[in-house]
Design a protein that fits this description.
Largest sheet: 7 strands, mixed
Helix content: 25-40%
Structural class: alpha/beta
Number of strands: 7
Order of helices and strands: HHEHEHEEHEHHHEHHE
Radius of gyration: 18 Å
Shape: globular
Strand content: 15-25%
């Protein structure tokens, strides 16, 4: 198994993810979470790492707030798109770009960072736990991790609603190699356990798209978007909806040890 490089699918990714109602819900929900997460960190320009940051939507928003953001991605095409977005939005002065795997970013950091974004990346990696551990090592004591991963429970629920019983019984294997469906859907309990084993303290969990993908009438995605988004934001941080999100956003902090005070 190899880590997924999106050089060959950058345009499709942009069109099918960012340019859709599901992308708008994702950005809105993550934006709310990050706004609250930033309040738990020092109130100064932060050192932020966007690991596997793709086209840089969230990175540019944080750079616009005055933070120093380093975006890395395995895909050279994604890096080019992120650089262009930074120029267009006038935030290039607060951003750096590195083409490398997320798990190798320590080689390009001069000091630990205050906040790491790791959004919709870990499910594409051959060794997800190892990558997560490498990033936690890059985090300063008291820093925060914003981790969003593709939820196996949401995938199962979606196939059951569609009546794909045999596919569920087979363990919901990936059908198309070129699909934007992630290679390795993750079990939430496993991810939470990894974080705890790495010494992180989980501070919040949010379901991302807890309703959108389950609607049988897809016309409602656009026709009733405002109402749908409001309901997503109302229920996304409470169970059982968190655990049924197509993605789960988990926030965690790295403790400050006594000898570091």
């Amino acid at each position: 198994m190899q880590d997924r490089n999106f050089d060959d699918m950058a345009e499709k990714f942009s069109r099918n993810i960012y340019g859709t109602t599901k992308g708008r819900i994702r950005q809105a929900v993550l934006g709310q979470d990050l706004q609250e997460l930033l309040q738990t960190l020092p109130q100064r320009p932060l050192r932020i790492l966007d690991a596997g940051g793709g086209e840089g939507q969230m990175a540019c928003e944080l750079a616009a707030l005055g933070h120093q953001v380093l975006l890395c991605d395995l895909s050279g095409e994604m890096i080019r798109r992120a650089e262009a977005a930074a120029v267009e939005k006038g935030v290039s002065g607060n951003m750096q770009f590195v083409q490398c795997p997320a798990q190798h970013i320590a080689e390009h950091l001069e000091q630990p960072v205050d906040l790491i974004l790791f959004h919709a990346v870990i499910e594409w990696l051959a060794e997800p736990r190892e990558a997560l551990a490498a990033l936690v090592d890059c985090l300063a004591p008291g820093g925060a991790l914003s981790l969003m991963f593709y939820n196996i429970h949401g995938l199962v629920m979606r196939h059951m609603i569609l009546g794909n019983f045999g596919h569920v019984e087979a363990g919901v294997p990936k059908i198309k190699k070129s699909s934007l469906l992630p290679d390795h859907p993750l079990e939430p309990a496993q991810v939470y356990q990894w974080l705890e084993e790495l010494g992180m303290q989980i501070s919040g969990k949010t379901g991302v798209r807890v309703f959108h993908d389950y609607l049988r009438n897809r016309q409602q995605h656009k026709q009733d978007f405002d109402e749908l988004l409001a309901l997503e934001q109302r229920y996304c941080r409470q169970e059982p909806f968190v655990s049924l999100g197509r993605y789960i956003h988990v926030m965690a902090h790295k403790p400050i040890l006594k000898d570091e005070l």
